[in-house]
Amino acid sequence: MEQEQVIKIKNVGIKYGDNWVIRNFNTDFYQGQMVALIGSNGAGKTTLMNTIAGAIHPEEGKVEFNKKLLNKHAFSSIGWSPQRQVIDWYLNVYNNVYMGAMLAGYSKRESKIKTNNALKIVGLEDMSKKHPDALSGGQQQRVQIARAIVHTPKIMILDEPTTGLDAESTDNLLASLKKHADMGNFVLLSSHDLHSVENYCDTIMFIDKGKLIYFEKKEAFLSRFQNFEVLTLEIEHELSDAQFNTLQKSIEIISRNPLQVRIKSNEPLGDLIQLVERYVCVKDVKKEKSNLRDIYLKLKEGE
């Protein structure tokens, strides 16, 4: 069944001063998508997300929600968690989130249920009575996320939502967002935690210098770059600085500990091992297809 379009970005241009950060940007988003927005720092990710959320008005073009410009009705269906913290410091954790549900039009009873559920997702049930200034930066980030998702909006826009979250909280949040998308809603998020994002997002959007480079299903994006592999080498002892620097001139090392190298899929494995064993004994080799993080680093190198 064809999914309904929820957001249309048409010829959008944003500039700061005389510099265009984004220009002639066009794309459509559909219900049921969970999109990972990736790109290097300064690529325009935050500017794009803030524009979609209505926090920035484009100098050129427009953003439509269900074929209409952003209005009060559309805004109430958006859950937005910006990179910069936006929470009420005079309210405790519970009331920060509870207020979000009440403002969305839920009854007191419904708001309590939704608040408790949102706090559980981000792992703040035991801190509900604390004020934000008594929390760590990561915990404050969780308050903001809970407030953004408490009213289960049809559109969620989350800029770096996993920052400051531990592994369990990250999985709980992303699993909840995935479930939300599977129910026919739309989720757009950016994150540097690409391993976790790869497990849950179904679509990848890669932008560079304000331009859309790739926007496709995760499987198609990954297969596009499967002409190289990542090898993890178990070695007898760690390389010295001199050995590492010398070896790095001959092979592409992406991690020193554990030692990981990137090779072309058709490159003979024996030649690589022979080269490494000039300096240290190789005890075992594990081969993996490139994941989202590997591909991102490769694309970043080509900037």
CATH architecture of the largest domain: 3-Layer(aba) Sandwich
Globally, the shape reads globular
As a percent range, the share of helical residues equals: 25-40%
Biggest sheet overview: 6 strands, mixed
Structural class: alpha/beta
Unreliable stretches: none
**CATH topology call of the largest domain:** Rossmann fold
Give the H and E element order: EEEHEEHEHHHEHEHEEHEHEEHEH
Please tell me the overall pLDDT. 87
Strand content: 25-35%
Please state how the strands of the largest beta sheet are arranged side by side.
Answer: 6-7-8-3-9-10
Rg value: 22 Å
Quaternary structure of the protein: single chain
Protein name: ABC transporter domain-containing protein
Organism: Planococcus lenghuensis
Keywords: ATP-binding, Nucleotide-binding, Plasmid, Transport
Pfam families: ABC_tran
